[in-house]
Write a structure and sequence with these properties.
mainly beta; 8-stranded antiparallel barrel; about 10% helix
Length: about 200
Amino acid sequence: MKKLITLLLLMNFYIVNAQNPIIDLEDRDGSILNGAYYKDTDNVFNNYEGVWEYSNGLDTLKIELRKITFQFLGRYYEDVLVGEIKYVKNGIEKANTLPEINTNYGKEKRHTISGNTILTSPQRLNCTDCAPGEKRVYLGFKDPNPSVGRAGYIIFKKTTVANQEAIKIFIGYAGVRKRDGEIIPETTIPYGWYTLIKQ
């Protein structure tokens, strides 16, 4: 009886995997295959997990990132990297979403930082210090202050600073159309380059 149960479980495992093809995120071409699993097969996201901090006088930016595997999105599954932030300007806390890092939203794109695009071309988004084939991560970003309502992206690149593990990031915002007389709120975190040290 034990052998029969084991055999049935193994057959079930193979049938499920045969119906759910595994596609490397780096090979994703924009099309969606029902039941597919878009996987971080090279574990690129693992290199970015943890807490990272930028500090410049009274200004600090802390980012915590975590990898979520096999997230179901209705038609397919995917691995995703999500994150939350804490930003302090001139010693005054402007935003802090770090307590939400372990919140399970079901669709994890509700985190302040989320996505799963792996970049390998140095020409893409103008990486002048990237080696050929060097992997970077491109994630969506929404301003942590809901009243600002701005969205954009963050590009993450692994590096070292004084023999310490670090990431170099670029925060960019999507364009905003301004109507006559409308005041567009300033973003909470200024766009630009930051270097964060692993904590």
